[in-house]
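Bumping my old thread because nobody answered last time. Still need a sequence for this structure:
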């Protein structure tokens, strides 16, 4: 058992976790085929969303039991740009905004105000119909996908959408599309208040707020600066691989309620919102702990139970089960936080918690260095032994010649 530098080890593990480039290429190609099939069906149905789902591919995620893959430029918010100007009424105290337009008749509006509940219900209706009409999608390499649509809802109103394309004949292997509807604006056209400290050139998102405590109205939209969108490729790669590593850890520890692509991505974006531009300088270890902390300490337990369970007795049982899961998740969080604080972790814990087949790169380098030193020492000893008899033989020949 070797003691390793915690921060450096997670950096190297994250750097090496994504190795199957062929599978990554297949995932991207098949995801685009599925998106094209959904859009084509929406167009046949003359859905109002037929031109709004072009970026659905960025919300895709490939899941194969303990392994997960994402596009390098991954998203959870599906941005919509409405084809007309809106008036924004910002509420600085609540951190929300309402959008309105006079004398308009549009399905996204309730009265003269853009309503997130109306938009999500319309999308639920249209996607449910479109997915039911698609018999299946055949991938580029022959995989057959069966499509299924579901939502996460609260107070009978959907707030997140999921399309799952399961590969026929395979267990827990498929492509997930998890997304939250959002409105996208240019800061030059609709600037944010100065309190948000937005850069000169920027885009910002507005997403429907969930009225968990009956504080928000369905016309209220949260405000988010998508700082991850202007990150360079090295930061994107670090964030991407961190999520793959965190998913592997949670799945290996049987925290299946946390090993959910939707929650992982959502909590990562929460971490970027909390840290602002500073998140781009965070290492893998710190970013992983911050992301997982949002999962463990937020009220997702109540939200998931309320969304998926209707029966009161089943809701009690699910609440207890989620509580046990959250306790287990907190234990893992404490392990990560302690390792980060002390900056040390053992190779045995790496193998146990992450189920990595081979030892981390640091240990391999140390082992290779020791093996090379031993090989060099043996080689020097062999060469020394070979030289000794030759010297003696040559000396004896000289003596015989002189006699």
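Sorry it took so long. Here it is:
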């Amino acid at each position: 058992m070797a003691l390793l530098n915690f921060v450096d080890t997670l950096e190297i593990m994250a750097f090496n976790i994504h190795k199957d480039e062929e599978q990554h290429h297949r995932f991207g190609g098949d995801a685009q085929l599925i998106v094209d099939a959904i859009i084509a069906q929406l167009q046949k149905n003359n859905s109002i969303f037929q031109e709004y789902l072009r970026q659905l591919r960025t919300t895709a995620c490939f899941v194969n039991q303990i392994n997960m893959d994402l596009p390098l430029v991954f998203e959870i918010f599906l941005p919509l740009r409405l084809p007309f100007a809106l008036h924004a009424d910002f509420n600085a105290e609540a951190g929300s905004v309402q959008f309105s337009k006079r004398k308009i008749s549009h399905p996204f509006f309730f009265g003269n105000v853009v309503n997130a509940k109306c938009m999500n219900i319309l999308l639920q209706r249209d996607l449910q119909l479109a997915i039911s009409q698609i018999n299946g999608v055949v991938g580029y390499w022959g995989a057959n996908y069966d499509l299924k649509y579901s939502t996460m809802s609260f107070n009978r109103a959907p707030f997140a959408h999921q399309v799952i394309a399961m590969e026929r004949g395979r267990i827990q292997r498929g492509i997930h599309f998890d997304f939250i509807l959002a409105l996208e604006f240019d800061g030059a056209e609709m600037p944010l208040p100065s309190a948000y400290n937005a850069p000169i050139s920027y885009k910002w998102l507005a997403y429907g707020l969930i009225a968990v405590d009956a504080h928000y109205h369905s016309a209220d939209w949260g405000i988010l600066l998508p700082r991850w969108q202007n990150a360079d490729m090295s930061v994107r790669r670090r964030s991407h691989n961190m999520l793959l590593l965190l998913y592997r850890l949670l799945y290996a520890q049987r925290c299946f309620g946390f090993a959910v692509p939707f929650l992982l991505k959502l909590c990562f974006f929460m971490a970027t919102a909390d840290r602002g531009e500073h998140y781009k300088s965070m290492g893998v270890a710190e970013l992983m702990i911050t992301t997982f902390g949002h999962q463990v300490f937020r009220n997702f337990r109540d939200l998931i139970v309320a969304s998926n369970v209707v029966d009161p007795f089943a809701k009690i049982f699910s609440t207890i089960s989620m509580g046990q899961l959250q306790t287990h998740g907190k234990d893992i969080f404490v392990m990560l936080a302690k390792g980060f604080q002390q900056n040390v972790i053992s190779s045995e814990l790496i193998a146990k918690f992450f189920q990595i087949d081979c030892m981390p790169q640091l240990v391999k380098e140390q082992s290779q260095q020791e093996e090379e030193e031993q090989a060099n020492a043996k080689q020097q000893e062999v060469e020394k032994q070979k030289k000794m008899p030759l010297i003696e033989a040559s000396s004896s020949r000289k003596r015989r010649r002189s006699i």
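Residues 3-361 form a domain with the Beta Polymerase; domain 2 fold (CATH 3.30.460.90). Let me know if any region looks off to you.
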